Fold this protein.
Amino acid sequence: MAYKGETVTRPDPNGVSEKEWRDYLYIRKNTAGWMTESWYCRSGCQQYFTTERNTITNEFRNSPIPGPKK
């Protein structure tokens, strides 16, 4: 598995200020505790998936089990 980052909603680049766009690209909450993240299964199904991970204990919850590549 490969960590791809905190899950954030992409704003419309034509409808936000330069600061809002820059914040979307570079600023993350870096929460201590439960956080929704994007991951990539690189050793099998090669799919992206979203899960919750505790950044303190590295415990996962509500994690889908990626299936075989179709």
